[in-house]
Amino acid sequence: MADSKTTANVKPSTTVQVKKAGNSISWIAPVVCILVGYCFWRFILGDPSGFTKPGHGAFWPSHEGPKGALNKMYLGGIIVPLLIGCLLVVVTFVIERMLTITKATGTASNDDFVRKVQYHLANKNLEAALAECDKQKGSVGNVMKAGLHRYKEMIGNTELATDQKVMAIQKEVEEATALELPMLEKNLVFLSTLASVATLIGLLGTVVGMIKAFSALGEDSGGGAAATQLSVGISEALYNTALGIGTSALAIIFYNVFTTRIDAITYGIDESGFTLTQSFASCTSNLWKFFAFASKGKTLKFFKKCQKSNYPGKARLWT
User: Fold this and answer.
1) How far apart are the C-alpha atoms of 90 and 96, rounded to whole Å?
2) The pLDDT value given to residue 305
3) Which of 3, 47, 78, 159 is the most buried (most CB within 10 A)?
4) Nearest by Cα to 169 from 289, 267, 284, 7
5) Residue 75: which residues within 8 A CB-CB, separation 6 or more?
6) 3-state DSSP: the chain helix, strand, coil percent, rounded to 5?
7) What is the mean pLDDT of residues 75-89?
8) What is the average per-residue pLDDT within 108-118?
9) Distances from the Cα of 1 to the Cαs of 4, 6, 7, 246, in angstroms?
10) Window from 110-119, 199-208, 273-282, 291-300 with minimum mean pLDDT
């Protein structure tokens, strides 16, 4: 007969639930923001009532004689609505990431949450630890909750060795982390991209405006009027640079803010995983010590009982 080997069955299932969250905002928001930027540039900044000499045209009327600073921005050229759209994209994703990361942070301090879970695990109170996860919510709470479910399952498992159980808990935490981190870092690429691209677009608009201004100067006969026209054209072109630098600065500031907060959440996730594995290893080690102590106590009682009786082999037991 062939030797039959029994192997421990490890459940491949996981308690981590995949989040089916769409990311339609990543392609809808930029298009909508650019359209809104054009409408703002065309109908508000380019309102004919804000110019002494309104022009004609549907897409890009050539107005002259702006009455206010906003109307002067209209004369910055067709790059201005694109820059306004970039600014709106940055504001949109700043608000979106702020709401998402604030929700992922949880309802309380992650450090306090981890300490509470450590306290409940030290007291062998898994239900209280799970209740703390439900209160905390957020990414750290979700990862800790997934790990605690596997922790609870491994305590009742008698087929796996201790190191295998620890590895199972670590794998559960890693799977939960792999689902949480992409949700935190999603759409940050727009901020990092616009942080550099907005300045370049602004410089492009400025260069185009200055080319137009110097071209008009070359067509003129020269004189004080030409110099005045050139200075006005350059000042209008520099609106592009101002918009580009402002958009870039806003994107850089909030990108750094969000990455710092994500790093703090990631640290909390790593600490929660370390807490679970160390607590389980400590619990298992203490359990084996208890069994060894109990077994030793029973052996001593048996020896003492044999010593008091007339058991023939008591001398051999004690020698």
Assistant:
1) 10
2) 47
3) 47
4) 284
5) 63, 66, 236
6) 75, 0, 20
7) 93
8) 89
9) 9, 15, 18, 81
10) 291-300
More confident residue, 130 or 19: 130
Total domains, the chain: 1
Please indicate whether residue 9 or residue 101 has the higher confidence score (pLDDT).
101
The separation between CA 147 and the C-alpha centre of its own chain, rounded to angstroms, equals: 20
What tens digit of pLDDT does each residue of 13-63 get?
555 554 555 677 788 999 999 999 999 999 999 999 988 888 888 888 888
Letter for the amino acid at 314? K
| Contact yes or no for 139/185 (Cβ under 8 A) | no
Q: Is residue 314 part of a domain?
A: no
What is the C-alpha to C-alpha distance for residues 58 and 54, in angstroms, rounded to an integer? 12
Asked if residue 297 belongs to a domain, the reply is no
pLDDT band per the 50, 70, 90 thresholds, residue 312: very low
Q: Greater confidence, 229 or 248?
A: 248
Query: What is the distance between the alpha carbons of residues 213 and 218, in angstroms, rounded to a whole number?
Result: 9
Domain of 248?
26-292
Distances, alpha carbon 2 to alpha carbons 5, 6, 9, in Å: 9, 13, 21
Mean of pLDDT over the chain: 81
Find the Cα–Cα–Cα–Cα dihedral 163, 166, 167, 173, rounded to 10°: -170
Q: Which residue carries 């799977």 as its tokens?
A: 175
Q: How many CB atoms lie within 10 A of CB 196?
A: 11
pLDDT over 70, % of the chain: 78
Which residues have C-beta within 8 Å of that of residue 159, sequence separation ≥ 6? Answer: 8, 9
Decide if 20 is inside a domain: no
Whether residue 136 lies inside any domain: the answer is yes
* The residue to which tokens 């604030």 are assigned: 102
Distance CA 202, CA 242 (A): 7
Q: Please tell me the distance from the alpha carbon of residue 48 to that of residue 270, in angstroms, as a whole number.
A: 59
